[in-house]
User: Fold this.
Amino acid sequence: MKTFSIGGVHPNDYKLAADAPIENLPIPDIAYISMSQHLGVPAIPVVAVGDKVKVGQLIANAGGFISAPVHSSVSGTVKKIGPVKDLSGKEVNTVTIETEGDEWIDTIDRSGDIVREIKLDSKQIIERIKECGVVGLGGATFPTCVKLSPPPGCKAEFLIINGAECEPYLTSDYRVMMEMPEQIIIGAAIMMKALGVSKGFIGVEDNKPEAIEKLGAFEKDYPGIKVVPLKKKYPQGGEKQLIDAVVGRKVPSMGLPIATGSVVQNIGTTLAVYEAVQKNKPLFEGIMTVTGNCAPGQKNFRHRVGTPLSKIAEYAGGIPEEAVKILSGGPMMGKAISNMDAPTLKGSSSILYLTEEQTKRKEETFCIKCGKCIQACPMGLEPYLLNKLGRINDMEGLEENRIFDCIECGCCQFTCPAYIPLLDTIRIQKGRVMRIIKNRPKK
Assistant:
C-alpha cells in the first residue's frame, strides 16, 4: 500500500459522519458573502446597495492575479456592503443580501443529467474556471485557474486528486466520492485536458474502500485516470506528502509541487470544476461536515456560501452543552471559531465540536530528547530544535534549520510525550522568518 516516505502519525480517524448522506440546508434568510474567501487579494464588489441579484450572479470581480470573483448564493436585495466579522472576529468587507425566493441565473444547467463530453479546449476551460470563481477547497483556497496555468519553464506531467481526507472527523469529501463519483472522474478529465497531461491519479486512503470501489468503476471509461489506494496515515493529504506517495517524487525545499511535474487538486475542487465547466455553475455552494463526539447528530450538508454558522448549528440540533471548543476544519489543523454568527465561505469544511476532555492541555514537562517529534515530522525537520531556537528568537538558526518547510500539520505536538506545544512556537516563528525572507533585498 502506497504512502509517503518520511514521518507521519496515526490518529484515530473518528469518521462519525461517514454514513450520513449529503443534505441540502435551508436557504438563509440573509446571506453574508465575504469578499475575502480565497487566497490573495480580496474581491471588488460590482453591485450596490438596493440592487436585485439572482443566484449565481457575479457580485464581485477578482481584485488581482491571485484572487477570484465572487457570486451570489441567494436571490434578493443587496442590503449592505461593508465590514462583517469572520469566524475569528476579524472584520471583512462583505456583501449582505436579504433573500427573496430562489431565482437562479438562466445560464446554469440545473438538470440532474451528467454531462460527459468535454467540449471546451484548454484555454476555454481555464477561463470558465476563472469566471466561475473556483478555488481550492482543501484548505488553502488558492485560485484554481492559476494552479492550472504553470509558470513559464514549468511543465505539468501529472494531475493528482486528493481524496485522502486524512484529517480526523471530516467526511464531506468522502460523501462527494460516494454520491458523485462520475462527476469527480469527469472533473479530473477536464483538468487533465486543461493541463495537457495524459496521466491523472486519485489518491484515496484505504479507510474508504467503498469510495475506492465507486471511483474505480469508472476507470475503464476515462483513459489515463487511475484510482490509487493509499495507506491511512496523517498528513497523507498534504500536497508534498501526496506527491511522494502517488508518484514517488519529492518537492524541493521552498519549492512548488509543479517542480515535480505534479498539480494537486482537492475532491471538492474537482466537483466544482465539473460544475463550472459542464454546468456553467459558479462556486456559490459548498459541502461541510457537522460532527464531534458530543454532537447531537452527525451531518454532511450542502450549504449556500454566506450562511451563518449559527443557523447551520441550529439546524443540526444545536450546539451541545459539552462543547467547550468549536473548530472550522479538523482537530489537527483546524481553526477555532470564536464567532458563530460568522458566515460560511467557499472553503468551509466543518463545524467540529470538542469536549473539555479533548481540548484540555496536559502540563508541559521537560524535553527528554526521545526523538519522537523528529520521527513524526513528514518534512524531515527537527521540531524540538526549532522550538528551542524559537524560544530564544534565533532567527538565523531557524532559517538554517528550514523552519519555512514546516507545513504546520501538528504531528510533532501530537506525538510529544512531554506535552510541549511545539507547533505553537514553530508557527509563530515561521511567520516571522518568512517575513524576513520576503523583505530581504533581492540580489
